[in-house]
Design brief:
Blueprint (H helix, E strand, L loop, with lengths): L1 H31 L10 H4 L4 H27 L3 H12 L2 H12 L21 H7 L4 H29 L3 H39 L1
Helix pairs in contact: 3-4, 3-5, 3-7, 7-8
Amino acid sequence: MTSMTTRLAAGAAAVLAAAALAACGSASTRSQAPPTTPATASPSAAAAYNAADVAFTGGIIQLEGQAQALSGLAAAHASSTQLRGYATRLGDDTADSQHMSGMMQRWHQALPSPYQPGTALGPGMMSGHDWADMQHQYGHEFNDHWLDAMMANRSAELALCRDELRAGASAQARHLAQVMLTERQAQLAQLQRWHHTTDHASENAGHNGD
């Protein structure tokens, strides 16, 4: 009886030891295996977008390309210190275009072609005829034409921002649209004030000539 009890106890101990070793081996295997990705972490869900987002980003990239080109033109043609200063700041600010380009790449959407003056069509975009005229204008005539072009540019960007906030699906694009809406409204108001000032200056010059 004693010997059978001893054998049973030894057998139970062996079973427990084998189970312990198996558990250690299983834990070691789990620790070396790569973590699985939760089903809820869907890349497509994190990068959700729709046609309105693509239209917004592509349109802003084109309009900002034109704004950059206008900035370079003002440096050599504008007679107003205020306009030249504004144009310089405009030329240095490429953050919005970079944000839009990055989003389109993450969405696997083709980027618009690099902006070429006078070739792009649509709201706020200048024709080739306008560009040809401005390249031969200086002083007040250029200032007035440049302000008209920039006001149309900013008005078109504001329209894109409102369309995005109304119909866009991308949280990042909607956030940028809201920030840009506030910034562009302030810029448009400033451009309109300058335009009003140049109109008065032109009228006064005409009266003095009479």
